[in-house]
Specification:
18 helices, Beta Polymerase, domain 2, alpha/beta, 432 residues, 6-stranded parallel sheet, 10 strands, 3 domains, Rossmann fold, disordered C terminus
């Protein structure tokens, strides 16, 4: 069985493809069940954010399992599977684990070192567990990845002074306008990114923060915390007439502001320009809005340059994080090998005990003549001899766990003692 990851991210796909691939939180359970029902996928986790959509899976057959994932992604995006394959990356086993560790540590983000991704990795794993889509392997892998993400941020400066998607959007808006001081800002979305934007805006001296969200209660809560006010979604167009900036970050699956809406807004603004920063994937604002006179529309692609500039301050920390990832990958290998060897050692010892008991049974007529103390002595002697013979091979196996030598030992043990031979088990079951 193989551990694989198949997906795409902000470096390999344009925004329009990313938004077609995005699975909203409300759609995760259905998507996970669809994946888990595929013939060659034994365990699955689906990680879908504004920057990536990736499927992590334990496959029963590598190539067939990868095809199962590709067809799932193609069906979800409405694209041809063969055409989509050219846009996807695939990693297997150690490379898949290394990739996940890098994602959790923030090395694969548009804004290197940003903090949101660690929570997103944890949430994707927890949702998959809740839906019964994971097993021991993926749960251990994701638990370890979360540990790697925490260690990277604790032991290095990778997240020091790092900007998040939320703060980057606010910074970008401030750069475009010269300053956000005294500006009236409409936040469309009150989720984690919207909350991050509110935090950044409160430090930028904005004049007023207005929050619109599908959940009115959440909008009111966020607005109250930052001294702003909340509005309903059907009030957004009217509110834009007197706003300076729109920051959009909802998890909606469909566009919330169409070009026609913005044309109406601009007609009522008497020529005053409007800045729109839409970091939602799928986009909240129709891309055609960029053609409306007086509107400047920025999206996730416009944050990439800011991400590169942010990286320069922490480039030296990337190498330190990679050292941590390599160290944790070695630990993960050892742990996985030890877990895989445990059943092998158990079968090895069971095989030896089976042979011991068979010999004792063969000599049963002669042993029956012995006194109970003498029979107990024979039982003790044979068991002790078997344990002593098995002790050194068992120790060598455990010491070599996680290495090529360990795999060689395991293969040899399987072959020499026919530990995986189903015919031996069948003979044992049918023996009189």
């Amino acid at each position: 069985m193989s551990l694989v990851v198949v997906g795409l991210n902000h470096r390999t796909a344009a925004v329009d493809l990313l938004e077609r691939m995005t699975v909203p939180p409300s759609g995760l359970p259905k998507a996970l069940h669809s994946l888990a029902a595929r013939e060659h996928l034994a365990e699955v986790v689906l990680l879908s954010t504004c920057n990536r959509t990736e499927v992590y899976a334990r496959t029963t057959r590598f190539h067939d399992g990868v095809d199962d994932v590709r067809h799932f992604l193609a069906e979800g995006s409405g694209l041809d599977a063969d055409a989509l394959s050219e846009q996807l990356y695939t990693f297997i086993d150690d490379a898949a684990v290394t990739h996940l560790f890098g994602v959790a540590a923030g090395l694969d983000s548009m804004i290197i070192g940003e903090g949101e991704i660690l929570g997103q990795v944890r949430e994707a794993w927890q949702v998959a567990e809740g839906e019964g889509a994971t097993g021991q392997l993926l749960s251990r892998t994701f638990r370890h990845a979360v540990e790697v993400g925490k260690r990277a941020r604790t032991e290095t400066g990778i997240s020091r002074h790092a900007v998040s998607i939320a703060s980057a959007a606010v910074t970008l808006a401030g750069d475009r306008l010269g300053s956000l001081a005294g500006r009236r800002v409409l936040l469309l979305g009150a989720g984690d990114v919207g909350e991050g934007m509110a935090v950044a805006l409160s430090g930028a001296g904005v004049g007023e923060i207005i929050v619109a969200n599908r959940s009115q209660a959440r909008a009111r809560d966020l607005a109250r915390r930052f001294g702003g006010r909340a509005i309903a979604l059907d009030e957004v167009v009217d509110t834009l007439v007197t706003s300076d900036v729109l920051l959009a970050s909802t998890g909606a699956s469909a566009t919330l502001i169409e070009r026609g809406d913005m044309e109406e807004v601009m007609q009522r603004r008497d020529g005053r320009a409007l800045l729109v920063v839409d970091v939602a994937v799928p986009r909240d604002v129709d891309p055609g809005v960029s053609q409306v006179f007086g509107v400047t529309l920025l999206d996730i692609d416009d944050l990439k340059a800011l991400g590169e500039a942010s990286l320069e301050a922490r480039r030296a920390e990337v190498g330190k994080v990679r050292v941590i990832i390599n160290d944790e990958l070695d630990r993960f290998r050892l742990d996985r090998s030890a877990r895989e060897l445990a059943p092998l050692v158990e079968r090895f010892r069971a095989r030896a005990e089976e042979l011991r008991l068979a010999e004792v049974e063969r000599l049963a007529p002669k042993l029956a003549k012995l006194e109970p103390e003498e029979r107990a002595a024979v039982e003790h002697l044979t068991r002790s001899m078997v344990n002593k013979l098995l002790h050194e091979p068992t120790i060598r196996l455990k010491e070599a766990a996680g290495t090529a030598r360990g795999e060689l030992y395991a293969d040899a043990l399987n072959e020499l003692f026919a530990l995986d031979d189903p015919r031996r088990s069948e003979r044992r079951r049918t023996a009189p």
